[in-house]
Design goal:
Structural class: alpha/beta
CATH topology of the largest domain: QueA-like
Helix content: 10-25%
Strand order of the largest sheet: 2-1-17-16-14-3-12-13-15
Number of strands: 17
CATH class of the largest domain: Alpha Beta
Distance between the termini: 27 Å
Number of helices: 7
Shape: globular
């Protein structure tokens, strides 16, 4: 039985990156050979020498919503914060509410001098609220004006430039958190990879806040994974299939791309265009159908993300790599450094 504690390591708080580097592609890069366990070090733009002509790099083009709304209760003026998680229907969204005691069913709230109004219609699992919004115009434009970027709870500093919590190829709005492995890429680096003969495929998986949810059961097989919405179209499915037919490697950028690929792949690894919801939970013992290599950041101890990485490279090799990362003072989490598992 695999236990949560099998994925524990000591992480000094000062190694949690609080802000992005000035240049995206100058973060550090640890390269882990999943066959031998050999570790080497460089900077992220070195990824150019590790990817070969014929490989296919798979990127998640989701875009983070400015999903934190701060307003006040209509009758009392008390402060409220809603964090939009997912649209449930029409003008209704499932949200986290803080403080929850102010957000009873029927409570009404106002944001931005009345540009946006809201009423709580229901309370669902884990205390999340279903909130119906009232507004004139286009909701996404109002959100751009009033909303704040929902940075992860371990980032306590203010982000000066909101675009630094978006990938340079972000396109489809819908995430509550960024697919952070992609934050290291620049448009110039992506062009250099294409010039080398690396094909680039895109999919969309809207990252939910469940990605930060701790595993609360000791036996990890009993953990209930959150579900997230994904889309992969025909053109990009074909790119990945062509790469496999030509014996190239499918390189997932981030655990979100990896989970989507493993969700949509047939038993033989063929990718078909589709969309839907995935709650796939990948941990050691899982047999990968399509992903050959992974670019990822350094994750929280005992998280589902470090379990996924361990499924690909082996728990012992990954835990050794993480010990090395701590000793070498790598930066961790969303704005931190990167690892390439080849």
């Amino acid at each position: 039985m695999l236990r949560v504690s099998d994925f524990k390591f000591e992480l000094p708080e000062e190694l949690i990156a609080q802000h992005p580097l000035e240049n995206r592609d100058e973060s550090r890069l640890m390269v882990l050979d999943r066959e031998t366990g050999e570790i080497s070090h460089g900077i992220f733009k070195d990824i150019l020498k590790y990817l070969n002509s014929g490989d296919c790099l798979v990127l998640n083009n989701t875009r983070v919503m400015p999903a934190r709304l701060i307003g006040e209760k209509l009758d009392s003026g008390g402060k409220i914060e809603f964090l939009l998680l997912k649209r449930t229907a029409g003008r209704c969204w499932e949200c986290l509410a803080k403080p929850g005691k102010r957000a009873k069913v029927g409570s009404e709230f106002v944001f931005g001098n009345g540009i946006l109004k809201a009423r709580v219609t229901d309370i669902v699992e884990e205390g999340n609220r279903i909130v119906e919004f009232q507004y004139e115009g286009i909701f996404e434009e109002i959100l751009d004006e009033l909303g704040q970027m929902p940075l992860p709870p371990y980032i306590t500093e203010t982000l000066e430039d909101k675009e630094r919590y978006q990938t340079v190829y972000s396109k489809t709005v819908g995430s509550a958190a960024a697919p952070t492995a992609g934050l290291h890429f620049t448009k110039e680096l992506l062009k250099s990879l294409e010039d080398k003969g690396v094909s680039i495929a895109y999919l969309t998986l809207h990252v939910g806040l469940g990605t930060f949810r701790p595993v609360k059961v000791e036996d990890i097989e009993n953990h209930a994974m959150h579900s997230e919405f994904y889309v992969i179209d025909e053109e990009n499915a074909e790119k990945i299939n062509r790469c496999r037919e030509n014996k190239g490697r499918v390189v997932a950028v981030g655990t979100t791309s990896c989970r989507t690929l493993e969700t949509v792949a047939e038993a033989d690894g063929t990718i078909k265009p589709r969309s839907g919801w995935t709650d796939i939970f990948i941990y050691p013992g899982y047999t990968f159908k399509v992903v050959d290599a992974l670019i990822t950041n350094f994750h929280l101890p005992e998280s589902t993300l470090i379990m996924l990485v361990s499924a690909l490279a082996g728990r012992d090799k990954v835990m050794r790599a993480y010990e090395t990362a701590v000793a070498e003072r790598y930066r961790f989490f969303s704005f931190g450094d990167a690892m390439f598992i080849k």
